[in-house]
Write a structure and sequence with these properties.
single chain, 3 domains, 15% strand
């Protein structure tokens, strides 16, 4: 209180702050998912093309999923892919297939019905996900009634580059997201996928607060001999901008997200039960029990059975049908790993911090891989002398299961930014210091302010060092903070209103290559 403001006799209190401002660490584990949802409406309000923060899967369901019908009706299906059994003249060389009564059938989807976002959100929360942003850019399109050819890349015509880039641009105004994830990007053509990835990297490098986690086209059903062609295609289409803000993971992962109750006869042949009957009860070997169930499905009685009850009856009476459902379930459970990686990052950050590499850990619900990479094969993914674009492998190890076995950004040739944990730690430090320093905008640009800023940032970095985020035997070895006339500013800077702060940090790097040296020596007498 200024003495000039005191005009009435009495006693006055003047409180003085005893402690300087402190830096509140920013959140580092908030992914933003962009894609297509069953719906986007809650309490009469539309949430399409509106970044929406959620904190649980239940919250996601309430806004972006179909409402649950009252019992005893079956639960509403949030995702209904359509599959076909296409008869082949000989054993298919690509894709999944079945041998039924001496005939080969390829199991192939209708590409217009394949989406990944819904199951990816489930995978994210299975792996410990917390807060997240959802940008729903549209709902599902109608089935085309035409399956793809066996082994062909799935391109969904309803997944549009313009929709996804529009949803991405909406995130420019959101400060919280620290990861950009678009699971359905692999359903685009290679050209459109490339344009989206480059736009994501450019936006990340401009705002400097989020990384991009990419999936790779071809990772769903890779050829064991030619899979490197998909890798080279990816590398040649990601451009050269913002590579240190991106990380890619390969291959897709087989999960247990979808259960047997999620797939039934309505997911076959576009719901045409007659085509299914021709396979389950052929004229050469009829199955009367199956025909009776199908007749009840086509002409329900006065007390009709639910779809799940009819489905259970078909499974009980036909081993062929049971096998078909098993194969389709395995195909629908083959998901891009990006959402699972985001969940792993969330848990790692909460337990340790962004300086701990999100690697050498498992992905919950991941049970199979479409390709088992060897050490030699991963070597070509991890280090690429030509482009430097590293791909993080997901591998299966005997006795340990499926592990994330890579921790690099796409900027694999950079000594500064080749590790994902280094880039994310720098984002954490930069954004935390930036937000805290805003309190000193318009403060006097003098020594008092300079010392206050230095003390605030030094205190924050000391806490990071104590937690293991910075390396060095002492805080002085781990970081330095400079701010003042003659060190970071000139007299002209002060006249122009600039307060320059220089921060140097020694960030910990992951021990990616551990070399153990063993040497024999002669026995020695005691």
């Amino acid at each position: 209180m200024k003495p000039s403001n005191i005009k009435t006799p009495g006693v006055y209190l003047n409180e003085i702050n005893a402690f300087p401002n402190a830096i509140v660490p920013v959140a580092t584990e908030v992914p933003a998912f962009i894609g297509y949802t069953p719906q986007a409406e809650y309490e009469g309000k539309s949430y399409f093309n509106k970044p929406t923060k959620i904190t649980s899967f239940a919250e996601f369901e309430s806004i972006f999923c179909y409402p649950k019908p009252a019992p005893p009706a079956d639960p509403a299906k949030q995702y209904e892919p359509q599959y076909y059994l296409v008869e082949e003249k000989s054993q298919p060389g690509k894709g999944d297939y079945l041998l039924i009564e001496g005939k080969y059938y390829s199991i192939v989807p209708d590409p217009s019905t394949i989406y990944y976002l819904y199951n990816s959100i489930r995978l994210f929360y299975e792996n410990g996900g917390g807060e997240a942003y959802i940008v729903s850019v549209g709902t599902y399109g109608s089935a085309s009634g035409q399956p793809i050819k066996a082994g062909e890349q799935i391109v969904n015509p309803y997944v549009q580059l313009a929709d996804l880039t529009k949803g991405l641009a909406l995130l420019k105004n959101e400060q919280e997201p620290t990861m950009y994830i678009c699971p359905e990007a692999t359903l685009l053509s290679v050209k459109d996928n490339a344009a989206l990835m480059q736009e994501m990297l450019l936006q990340s490098s401009e705002i400097k607060s989020a990384i991009c986690i990419f999936d790779i086209i071809g990772g769903r059903n890779p050829d064991p001999n030619l899979f490197m062609e998909d890798i080279e295609t990816f590398r040649s289409h990601t451009g050269t901008n913002g590579l240190d803000f991106g990380a890619a993971y390969y291959p897709f992962i087989g999960t247990t997200i979808m259960q047997s109750s999620d797939i039934d006869y309505t997911n076959l042949f576009g719901g045409d039960i007659k085509q299914l009957q021709a396979i389950l009860s052929p004229a050469s070997k009829p199955n009367t029990a199956v025909e009776k169930i199908i007749a009840n499905i086509e002409s329900p009685s006065n007390s009709p059975l639910t779809i799940s009850q009819n489905n259970a009856a078909l499974i009980a009476t036909s081993n062929t049908y049971k096998t078909i459902i098993k194969h389709i379930l395995a195909d629908t459970n083959m998901l891009p790993p990006s959402a699972g990686i985001a969940g792993v990052i969330t848990v790692t950050d909460n337990n340790m911090g962004p300086w701990k590499a999100p690697a050498n850990t498992s992905i919950v619900s991941a049970t199979t891989l479409p390709i088992n990479l060897s050490e030699a094969q991963q070597g070509e993914l991890n280090i690429d002398p030509l482009t430097g674009k590293s791909i993080n492998a997901i591998r299966q190890f005997p006795g340990m299961g499926i592990l994330i076995w890579g921790a690099r950004t796409l900027d694999g040739n950079s000594l500064d930014w080749k590790y994902l944990s280094v880039r994310r730690t720098m984002i954490f430090i930069e954004q935390s210091c930036k937000l805290a320093a805003q309190a000193y905008v318009f403060e006097p640009n003098d020594k008092n302010s300079w010392e206050a800023v230095k003390a605030m940032i030094s205190s924050f970095l000391t806490s990071v060092w104590k937690q293991g985020g910075l390396c060095g035997a002492s805080p002085a070895d781990a970081f330095s903070v400079d701010c003042g006339l003659g060190t970071t500013m000139t007299a002209e800077d002060i006249l122009n209103g600039f307060m320059n702060i220089t921060i140097k940090v020694a960030i910990t790097h992951p021990a990616e290559f551990m070399v153990i040296t063993i040497q024999q020596e002669m026995a020695k007498s005691s």
